[in-house]
Amino acid sequence: MKKYHIFKRPDRNIKVNVEEKILPSNSSNLLESQIPKYIVIHEVSLGTGKSPVEYNMEHYYKKIYDAGQSGSTIGYHYLVGDKSIYHFIPDNIATTHTGTDFGNHNSIGVERLICKGINYEYAIHNQAKLIATLMLKHNIPLKNVITHKEMQLRYGSVERRSNPKQCPGRLIAGFRGTLNDFRTEIKRCFIYGWFFNELLDEKTINKIPDVMALAQRKYREEINMKKQSIMKNINKDDIER
Ligand SMILES: [Zn+2]
Predict the structure, then answer these.
(1) What is the pLDDT of residue 190?
(2) What residue numbers bound the domain in which 123 lies?
């Protein structure tokens, strides 16, 4: 069995951009202002078989737009597909996306599209790259990048904690890559400098070489630590023999 999974990335000449589709300021799903400290990983919850090809980026754009015009407070900040990313709600505005009061007022919700025909792995890569960009932009550590489920387990009501939403379902289930693989993909974005620069100011963009060097150093340290622990175990085996 494979111990880890590296997600496939879109071809270099396919340019994926973050498109600003900010909802009108009178939308009911734009709540009060917030300083984001967490990033919440979501996935559109219908199964692939239940999500027809027309449940695409535009479908969900219309849905969140209509929600905002109909008095609903439900929303999320970004929707990530395999070919594009839509930005609906400014990062510093709260919205209802976690089923917890704390999560709804302290985090950015990053939803990933699932529909028939989507390239699952490209969408996963784009989601990791967007999250890496938001971590850099808002100075959010990887430990504060958590799933919708984890947010409910930590900050939900007793009722929520006993039956948390299984979101993002496919990553939790380990369908073509686990949550751990997803976190590794975020780390890879830092190592290789994969960010959506259109979301960053010049000062932050200029910091990217230093950020990459730090991530590469951390990665080498992790590898060395693993090697050392393997060597230790080998020595132990020798002694015990
Ligand atoms: Zn969710």
Answers:
(1) 98
(2) 18-199
